[in-house]
Amino acid sequence: MKFIIRLLVALVTIILGYEVIHLIWLRDMDGWAVLSWIEEVNENGPSSRAETENVGAFSQVNSFDGEKSLFLIDILTLSSLAIMVLSAWVLWARKKVTSRRRPWSRTFWLSLGAFIVVTTFALFGSFPKHTEISDEEWSRIVNDIRVGDVIGYRKEKWSARRELFAEGKATVLGYRLFKYGHLAIVVDDPKVPGRKALFTSQGQIGANLDEDIETLRTHNWDSWRLDKWDRVDKDRIREGVIRCQEKAGHFFGYDYSGMFSLWNENLKPEQINDFGDEYICSTVVVTLLYFAGFESDATPRQGLDLITPLQVVKAKGHFIELPDLPKVD
């Protein structure tokens, strides 16, 4: 029994140590520290062999935090967890038996209760979740967003935990592992003139235009802009959005095999019928860009390969010539 308790204490201590280090020193790191290597970009991609004038890249143009940071909740949670672990070690795992068992026992149960209460309230959204901003301020921010901008979504850790544990959304795991947990590209809605929609792919929905730029008000995000956007074929963007929704805009249109880096659909369609049936948020963006004439260095392959949202905006690419689309009578 002591061995099991010691093992549990050791595991919790490791997790606690990492959370403290991340909270104090690694808050601004691009992604979860131990997995950040996955998000490295291929430096020998197609753009390395292209003419300089044909090379394109993204640059960050804006950033917004629509979710409140729960720094105090982090401190309370980690403090109560640390005290609980120390008490458990003194009571049940240490070789030397303590002579002050009652105070340590009281401390353990109080810290356990505090940990459970704070965690429960945080997971079920009892604390303020969104940043207050005036309509005028928001209008200035949203007016800076252009068609073609790629939106990388960030999420506060308690928000991600709430959606994972309280709502059962497994796809939010990406927010805890990487810099961005979701990606979308701003496009003109083919069916609603003037509407700047967010084209993406989501679990149980697939490729969709369900949200527009107004929904960004309650999210944390960074916007990235591709230089030489004028070289992208806008007609192909429109046709690609329509066709991708037709083929992958359904319950089974989200690529779970791609999410776990097992296999990706065709990421380099040249004709309308070349689109696949399943995409994740990052692959649907690079696929649409390829169809419109921009090949990203993030997509040189199809097999065992996870393409993360950060890779899409960090990678360079090059502009390519594609065959004309068939004329529609």
Description:
The protein is an alpha+beta fold. It has helices at residues 2-24, 71-93, 101-123, 135-143, 157-166, 173-177, 234-248, 256-259, 281-291, 309-314; strands at residues 55-56, 58-65, 150-154, 182-188, 196-202, 206-212, 220-226, 294-296, 317-319. It folds into 2 domains: 2-22 and 70-123, no CATH class; 31-68 and 134-319, endopeptidase fold (from Nostoc punctiforme) (Alpha-Beta Complex). It has 10 helices and 9 strands. It is elongated and about 85 Å long. The model has no long low-confidence stretch (mean pLDDT 86).
| CATH class category name of the largest domain | Alpha Beta
Q: Terminal Cα separation, in Å? A: 77 Å
The rounded Rg comes to 24 Å
CATH topology of the largest domain: endopeptidase fold (from Nostoc punctiforme)
- What is the average of the pLDDT values? 86
Number of domains: 2
- Topology, number of strands: 9
Estimated structural class: alpha+beta
- What is the CATH architecture descriptor of the largest domain? Alpha-Beta Complex
Q: SSE string, helix = H, strand = E?
A: HEEHHHEHHEEEEHHHEHE
Query: Which blocks of ≥5 consecutive residues have pLDDT under 50?
Result: none
Described by strand count, sense and barrel closure, the largest sheet is: 6 strands, antiparallel
Shape: elongated
Helix content: 25-40%
Strand order of the largest sheet: 2-7-3-4-5-6
Amount of beta strand? 5-15%
**Tally of helical segments:** 10
